[in-house]
Design goal:
- The protein has a single domain, classed as Flavodoxin domain (Rossmann fold).
- By secondary structure, the chain is of the alpha/beta class.
- 30% of the residues lie in helices and 21% in strands.
- The structure holds flavin mononucleotide.
- The site of flavin mononucleotide has 22 residues, from helix 1, strand 3 and strand 5.
Length: 178
């Protein structure tokens, strides 16, 4: 099973998430590359593609790579200024899904990524202001340790790593149940 992590990152947030994802993959036969240097996805069984949201969509470099994913399995991950679970975040992920034609999407994960102050100011001067602007302040410090734990769960759900063991003593079933 050959796995590849590809990421597009302007400010470093998605790169940070990609490096953590790469670290968490138990597979030994794995590669990681920024999108500009990424190998063709067809040589891999699983490709994890990371992007950041720009204007509500995956950034253009990631879009081009997503279009190349025509076989095998794909795991999508992203960072954005929008709050987790927001409509803006969900729309961005859906836009990425639609770009993948042929490959099977086995899972997705996204979290906030810190937005530089200058970017926040530029967005604030726009009319209308982008929908993610109101959430941008809460993106400070992300991705963080909690995001990495949530990423771990998403990877397990996608079958890319073993499911975590439940804490000992938390559930008693079968013959031992009282
Ligand atoms: C030009 C620009 C446009 C952006 N547009 C969006 C957007 O549409 N939705 C959103 O949630 N965040 C938006 N953001 C915030 C980034 O997606 C977020 O900070 C992300 O973590 C950046 O990733 P990176 O550090 O890997 O480049 C935008 C940021 C920039 C610089």
């Amino acid at each position: 099973m050959k796995q590849l992590v590809v990421y597009s990152s302007q400010g470093g947030n998605t790169k940070k998430l990609a490096e953590e994802l790469f670290k968490q993959l138990p597979e030994e036969n794995k590669d990681i590359a920024p999108v500009a240097e990424a190998p063709d996805p067809s040589g891999y069984d699983v490709v994890c593609v990371g992007f950041w949201l720009k204007g509500g969509e995956p950034d253009p470099a990631a879009q081009a790579y997503l279009r190349k994913c025509k076989s095998g399995k794909v795991f999508l991950f992203a960072t954005h200024g929008a709050a987790p679970g927001s409509t803006a975040a969900a729309r961005g992920m859906n836009a990425a899904r639609e770009l993948v034609d042929g490959a099977t999407i086995i899972g997705t994960f996204s979290c906030q990524g810190e937005v530089p102050e200058k970017v926040i100011q530029t967005a604030a001067n726009k009319d209308p202001q982008p929908p993610w602007l109101k959430d941008a302040a809460s993106a400070k410090g992300h991705p963080d340790g909690t995001d990495f734990m949530n990423l771990s769960e998403a990877l397990a759900k996608a079958g890319l790593k073993p499911k975590p063991e439940p804490p000992k003593g938390s559930v008693v079933t079968g013959d031992h149940a009282m």
